[in-house]
Amino acid sequence: MALSAQEETASPSNTSPKTAGSGTIAAGQLKAFIQRIERLEEEKTALTADIREVYAEAKGTGFEPKIMRQVVRLRKLEKADRQEQEALLDLYLHALGDLV
Questions:
Q1: What is the C-alpha separation between 11 and 24, in angstroms, rounded?
Q2: pLDDT tens sequence across 77-92
Q3: How many Å apart are CA 15 and CA 27, to the nearest integer?
């Protein structure tokens, strides 16, 4: 994602983040960081709503969103980590006698 000119100037410099040249707080730089965070939070909220809509659409066509969320979570894992989790789950279920 490309940075705007304002965002580029808000990057940390060699001066302390608390003070700028004359010893006063770097209000402009702080404001730029806060504005960037606020914009990103707004984008995150919009993306969350978009994702929710996709799950609702999938549910409307007969898919189970709860299972889809599990699939998405598992696909984020490395293959070895996923296999380890599956093996532990199997072990725990066997220990509890829940697998027949």
A1: 18
A2: 999 999 999 999 999 9
A3: 13
The per-residue pLDDT for range 4-60, each reduced to its tens digit, is 555 555 455 555 566 556 556 799 999 999 999 999 999 999 999 999 999 999 999
What's the chain's length in residues?
100
Contact partners, residue 38, CB within 8 Å, separation at least 6: none
DSSP character for 97?
Answer: T
Alpha helices in 1-100 (DSSP H): 5-9, 27-60, 65-76, 79-96
Environment class of 44 (CB within 10 Å of its CB; exposed 0-12, middle 13-18, buried 19+): exposed
Contact assessment for residue 45 and residue 22, using Cβ atoms and an 8 Å cutoff: no
Measured CA angle at 7 (ends 9, 17), to 5 deg: 55
